[in-house]
Amino acid sequence: MDKLRALEYFLATARTRSFSAAARELDVSVAAVARLVSTLETNLGVNLFERTPQGIKLTADGAAYLDMCQPILQQLQVADEALRGAASRPKGTLVVGCPTILSQHCILPELPAFHARYPEIQIDVRTVDKPTAVEANVAEVQVVYGWPEAAGLIQRRLANTRLLICASPGYWNKHGVPSTIEELEQHQCLLFRDQEGTVIDFWEHEREGLKRSASVSGWLVSTHRDDVLQAVIAGQGVGRFSDLSIREPLRTGQLVPVLLDWESRHAPPINLLYRSSQRRLPRVRLFIDFLVNVFRRMEEERAPELQVHLTPERPDWYRRRHGRASATPRH
What we know:
Elements: H1 3-16, H2 19-26, H3 30-44, E1 49-52, E2 55-58, H4 60-83, E3 92-98, H5 100-107, H6 111-117, E4 121-127, E5 141-145, E6 154-159, E7 163-167, H7 169-175, E8 191-192, E9 202-207, E10 210-215, E11 221-222, H8 225-233, E12 239-242, H9 247-252, E13 256-258, E14 263-264, E15 270-274, H10 282-300
Parallel strand pairs: 3-4, 3-5, 8-11
Antiparallel strand pairs: 1-2, 5-15, 6-15, 7-12, 7-13, 9-10, 9-14
Helix pairs in contact: 1-2, 1-3, 1-4, 2-3
Protein name: LysR family transcriptional regulator
GO molecular function: DNA-binding transcription factor activity; sequence-specific DNA binding
InterPro entries: LysR-type_TF_proteobact-type, LysR_HTH_N, LysR_subst-bd, WH-like_DNA-bd_sf, WH_DNA-bd_sf
């Protein structure tokens, strides 16, 4: 067995989640990919992929093996590209992992400019909500919200955010605009459930050192942030959203923010994650520089009343798997 080629076929299959897609990427037959991956599994004595009528996915052993092998293959890739002079004409596939909220509202609108400048780099965007997800193993660059625990990865702050309390003009006209944080408890607040299962129903805010909070509730809770956004735009309640993800609804007046003199103490920052060895790949280095500039420009374009003044703190409920943030003991 050609071990290096087997690892290459395994990595391509893990990245594309398909023998046929891996075969197209490698310009070989599907049978060749499937056969060599099966030989690798036999040699290791474990199943790397679970095969179902719906497709294939990594097993737990496969994910662990991928995590161990990927740095080795990446080192070889770095050496290959350096010798080929790829820096002068960057090419190849770049796998980017990020949550949907960031890909749809911050990154994808900017990608045409990157493509125009580097047309031979193919961008493969994967939905990755946290660095420990299986999909994160194949991502060369990750953009994530919050305070990630990512051992072995370089972490770089791209931007701080503000959490804005918003509703449609029609909702505010019908129900009145709150004058205090506590008054939010009298409104229909539509809530987001994070990837750990916690409903974010405890909204803490600060103004000139004074802290106020509200335990809010409403008729809708969703893991999908855009479900909440669309319901709020439709006038069904009040929502709280990261400012960089609602720039267009704010610009068009679909959303009207209130209580702007109060800032959230726990607005999640936006972070960039990558392995140190990958920074030497021209396509990775160029994309990192691109993202840094994109988010720097977004911060610079903030209206004066939306500027961020507080240093974000990790909330008590973060990663603790409480059913509701309001149920977390306070310090």
